[in-house]
Amino acid sequence: MPPTSFDVPAASDAPELWRHPDFRRLWLGQTASQLGEHATLVVLPLFAVLTLDVGADQLGVLRAVGQAPVLLLSLLVGAWVDRWRTRTVMVWADAGRALAALLAVNFVFGTFGQLVNVTVTAVRQARTPAGTQGRAAATITFVGMGMAPLGSLLGGFLAQEWGLRTALLVTAAGMLLSPVTMAASPLARLGPVLEAPAQSA
């Protein structure tokens, strides 16, 4: 039966979280997803300005549309995540976000991004046993925030060296690594957190 929390035997000296294969899959998938997302957030405005001749006011609207799902859908997304299988949500949301990036559909990109963010938080809170919550939160935050500068640099480099269309393809492909890794995970519907293993004296 697959584990229902990120707990592992306490015999090893390695940090508990990193010894759990599901947490490693979650971390790897979100690293690729966040790197691709932040690279896309650089490439999309460049594509709009340089290819579609979008003005400054239109660019502001484009950015607002991409962020609108955070304001409009966050509460609904939380209810959806509670009802659906988490692995299904993460796989399809990341895949949909990659497709939206290719099609330059900013609102859809933001909607799927919000689904991913809420689901990752829900998985972390529900599956992480007591005593490792801080480490799990710090690790996921590192991925979410730490990939921002790296993704921005990557997006600018790809756009400059390979062109905007190729850059969009590459960043979308990077985001697809997340659903691939999560598809192999046994994480299913959120459930009770198991107690952390007792530490031997």
Can you offer a commentary on this structure?
By secondary structure, this protein is mainly alpha-helical. It is built from seven helices and no strands. The longest helix has 30 residues, at 21-50. It is globular and about 50 Å long.
Features:
about 200 residues; mainly alpha; about 0% strand; globular
Q: What is the CA-atom radius of gyration, in angstroms?
A: 18 Å
Residue share in helix: over 70%
Number of strands: 0
For the sheet with most strands, the description reads: none
The structural class is mainly alpha
> How far apart are the first and last residues' alpha carbons, in Å?
28 Å
Low-confidence runs: 7-14, 188-198
How much of the sequence lies in strands comes to under 5%
Mean pLDDT: 77
Treating each run of at least 4 consecutive H or I residues as one helix, how many helices?
Answer: 7
Q: Could you give the topology of this structure?
A:
Blueprint: H1 21-50, H2 56-83, H3 86-103, H4 106-127, H5 133-162, H6 164-175, H7 177-183
Helix pairs in contact: 1-5, 1-6, 1-7, 2-4, 3-4, 3-6, 3-7, 4-5, 5-6
